[in-house]
Write a structure and sequence with these properties.
It is a single chain. The protein is an alpha/beta fold. The chain has three domains: about 90 residues, no CATH class; about 250 residues, Rossmann fold, CATH 3.40.50; about 160 residues, Glycogen Phosphorylase B (Rossmann fold, 3-Layer(aba) Sandwich), CATH 3.40.50.2000. Helices cover about 40% and strands about 10% of the residues. The strands form three sheets. Strands 5-4-3-6-7-8-9 form a seven-stranded parallel beta sheet. α6 runs antiparallel to α7, α7 runs parallel beside α12 and α15 packs across α18. The longest helix has 23 residues. The protein is globular, with a radius of gyration of 26 Å. About 40% of the residues are buried. One of its GO terms (biological process) is antibiotic biosynthetic process.
Length: about 550
Amino acid sequence: MRWGKTSAPRILETWSHSNTAQSMKSRTHRGPDAMIGWAPPTSRRARASVRTSRWNVEGDDACRPDRPPRATPLALRAWTGAPPPRCSRFPRFPAPWPRAASRELLMAKLMIFPLPHTGHLNPCLRLADELQRLGHQVVFCCMLAAEQAVRAAGFEFVPIFESSLARDYLVQASTRMGRSRSLLGLLSPLRDSVRSQNAMFQALLDGELDRTIERIRPDLILFDERFKYAGPAVHASGIPFLRLHTTVPLHFREHLFGQPVRRPKPVMRVLAKAIHGTLVGLGLHARFEFAFETLLRQKNLGTPGNNPFHGVGGVNELMLFPEAFANIAGTAAAARIHHVGPCINQEHREAQPFAWERLREDRPLIVFSMGTRGYVSKWVPPLLRAMVDVAKQRPDWQFVMGTGTSADPATLDGRAPNLIAVQSFPQLPLLRRAAVMVTHAGFNTVKECIWEGVPMVALPLTQDQPFVARIVDKHGIGVMAPPRELGAPGLLALLDKVLGDPSYKQAVTAMSARFHEADRPEPLEELVQRMLRQHREVASPTTEVA
């Protein structure tokens, strides 16, 4: 049978998998309706040919459910399961997946909205890899600062807030603030950053995200919970969505440590609101709360203290870490919380030069890094100096220290014969050789340490880091300490403790095994399929699939 523009079945968007070779053989030459049992391709070229469905076809037939989409013959073959032409240019399809014959897999267009910071973008890139391997089309919608990393990973990129946030605004902010050594020196870069953020919020209020979603037309949206301002627009679009958690939510504290989220007293709330208003008026703080309140009113979603995005569990939450590290099973919110594995980005990482020849195999390696945003803390420069002193006191160890923008590495490199100081380094390859890592307890770094089985000395700086450090200490995979007033003696005592007690290495090795065990696509696939089916049933309850 020749494939024409009108001979494809209406079920081009779905696959039905059969695990019986006989049924596959009987369907081989019985027309398009019999071809949907073929398994989806897994090679890179074959996956690329499959990314054609109702959201990637030619002409106005894309929006006509009563007519098949006009697509290329190769795409029709891929979607209906027809064997590709016997030509070396086209890959052969693998054996069918071992699935029930009645099970259909819905292929969808997924939009991911992450923050452009490294700790948020890395797990989202790994998540996108898994979704693409499952046959979905993945589109990243993000600020320009993330474009290079996203495109280098091979994903489609749609910029947002182009007129508000410059491509290099993160680099500029980190460099200028890192070089400031006084409060007055911080005012200028701080005001510039606030102006950019306020312009972004104004664009959000003017409907830029709404228009972007309408232009992309995704079937499922995944957005970073740290950018809660996207929530109202995503909710109002009527498209099913998942809220991504690239770190452990602070609302887990009550379940993990018996520590409820503290509510400030009324007097303190009034005082905080007055201080916030003053800082906003002086241009020293962005209009975060005003923007969120206005967005909630625009979409009729309640108030900041009573809306679907308040707390955890009001909407479907996607945790980019295994349950073994932190979970709240048995609570009311647990029904909407889904864990999908560690999401360690191992493939799409920027190549970084490093003097590997300076490392010695016969010495334990101590890796030090306060993350890509360590410049925001005044405790980082003293910690860098303390590490230099520790290196001098332990000549039989070797140290690699990442300074970030908090110091010039040239002023620290070589201060001790066993010390290497660089602005940044290839973290995963170094962790494979490390004995201990001194870290700010950023969650992306903590997951990578666990993945490679490296115990930690956690020195949390801000935001979620103290909470993550407490979980590290609770599991016995490292120790934690406040960075303030932690000089060389205190830091050396912590390193001696972790290196001298084998229980830390044993605990992190056991946790690493659980991370590797959880690194599988099935939970993510089941969740996405369930959400797509539920949305399809709600949108067209009487529609029958032929």
